[in-house]
């Protein structure tokens, strides 16, 4: 079972400190996605900070999101 995102903190350089429902914590780097389609809007630091948790993952107002699976597998241990 893939754990949900239960808490997060926006860090500098388009990184997010993430806490999963499994207790695992780490840093997810959004930087590699910023030039890909819908994610380009996340380059705006003010927009990037508008992230929230919805449906167990991190989402932004214009429906950008990353699956919990992507976050878990790509985050670096904190």
Task: Give a description of the structure.
With 78 residues, this protein is an alpha+beta fold. A hairpin with a 4-residue loop joins strand 2 and strand 3 (25-29). The protein has one domain (5-77): NE0471 N-terminal domain-like, CATH 3.30.2020.10. The chain has 2 helices and 6 strands, in the order E-E-E-H-E-E-H-E. Helices cover 14% and strands 33% of the residues. The strands form 2 sheets. A 4-stranded antiparallel beta sheet has the order 1-2-3-6, with helices on one face.
Radius of gyration, taken over Cα atoms and rounded to an integer in Å: 11 Å
Mean pLDDT: 96
Order of helices and strands: EEEHEEHE
CATH class equals Alpha Beta
- Number of H/I helices: 2
Q: How many discrete structural domains? A: 1
So what's the overall shape?
globular
Total count of strands: 6
**Order of strands across the widest beta sheet?**
1-2-3-6
- Give the helix level as a range of percent: 10-25%
**Spans where pLDDT lies below 50 across 5 or more residues:** none
Tell me the major beta sheet.
4 strands, antiparallel
* N-end to C-end Cα span: 21 Å
Keywords summarizing the entry:
78 residues; alpha+beta; NE0471 N-terminal domain-like; four-stranded antiparallel β-sheet; two-stranded antiparallel ribbon; 2 helices; globular
Concise synopsis of the structure shown:
The chain has 78 residues and is α+β, with helices and mostly antiparallel strands. It contains two helices and six strands. A hairpin with a 3-residue loop joins β1 and β2 (15-20).
């Amino acid at each position: 079972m893939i754990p949900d995102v239960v808490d997060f903190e926006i860090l500098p350089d388009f990184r997010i400190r993430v806490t999963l429902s499994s207790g695992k914590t780490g840093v997810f780097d959004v930087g590699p996605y910023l030039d890909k389609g819908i994610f380009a809007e996340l380059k705006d630091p003010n927009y990037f900070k508008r992230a929230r948790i919805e449906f167990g993952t991190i989402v932004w107002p214009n429906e950008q999101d990353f699956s919990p699976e992507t976050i878990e597998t790509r985050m670096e241990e904190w």
